[in-house]
């Protein structure tokens, strides 16, 4: 007689498959969690490393900015010192200018004229004085035009006043102080510094 299996084998097979499926599902979940944890740790490490690099860059930028400020301060001091040096050189160059102006005023004064007041503002001179006649003032102006130190005489006022019989005419004369020409060595040095 044939053997008939009356046990519920299909149900057992279904339960076995269900257990196998649940096991694989649990294994997949564990693998997914592990993979997610690895990915999280990897990217977390990347972010931490990038943050450390950013912090290092910020520190280095702060150091460089401090150095830049120091350099700017040094540049300001350098410009200040160069400006002082320039002023000193200009003063040194103009040291004898007034001596030359007074010497030239004494050389150019015409006979029969006298200077009472001299005012200088930059290169402009205002000369006030007295003269015997208009011709003496004209002679004085011609002498100024021939001068190597003073130039551009311009008579603004001449009037007869009876206060002094020997010098009855009062005059006001404007003139310019010529700028001294640079010496060849100084001109070369100035061009060399500009290049």
TrEMBL record:
Bilayer-spanning residue ranges: 21-43
Domain of life: Bacteria
Record bears the keyword Transmembrane: yes
Biological processes, Gene Ontology terms: type IV pilus assembly; type IV pilus-dependent motility
Coiled coil regions, renumbered to chain: 54-91
InterPro entries from the UniProt entry: Extracell_DNA_Util/SecSys_Comp (IPR052534), PilN (IPR007813)
Keyword rRNA-binding: no
Assigned keywords, A-Z: Coiled coil, Membrane, Transmembrane, Transmembrane helix
Protein's name according to its UniProt entry: Fimbrial protein
């Amino acid at each position: 007689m044939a053997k008939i299996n009356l046990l519920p084998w299909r149900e057992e097979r279904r339960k076995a498959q269900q257990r196998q499926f649940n096991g694989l599902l649990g294994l997949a979940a564990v693998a997914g969690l592990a993979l997610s944890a690895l990915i999280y740790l990897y990217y977390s490490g990347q972010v931490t490393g990038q943050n450390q690099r950013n912090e290092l860059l910020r520190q280095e930028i702060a150091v460089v900015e401090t150095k830049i400020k120091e350099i700017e301060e040094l540049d300001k001091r350098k410009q200040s010192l160069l400006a002082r040096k320039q002023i000193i050189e200009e003063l040194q160059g103009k040291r004898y200018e007034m001596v030359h102006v007074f010497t030239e005023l004494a050389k150019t004064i015409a006979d029969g004229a006298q200077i009472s007041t001299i005012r200088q503002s930059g290169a402009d001179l205002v000369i006030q004085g007295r003269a015997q006649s208009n011709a003496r003032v004209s002679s004085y102006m011609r002498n100024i035009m021939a001068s190597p130190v003073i130039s551009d005489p311009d008579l603004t006022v001449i009037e007869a006043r009876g206060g002094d019989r020997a010098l009855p005419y009062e005059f006001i004369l404007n003139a310019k102080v010529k700028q001294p020409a640079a010496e060849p060595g100084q001109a070369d040095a100035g061009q060399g510094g500009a290049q």
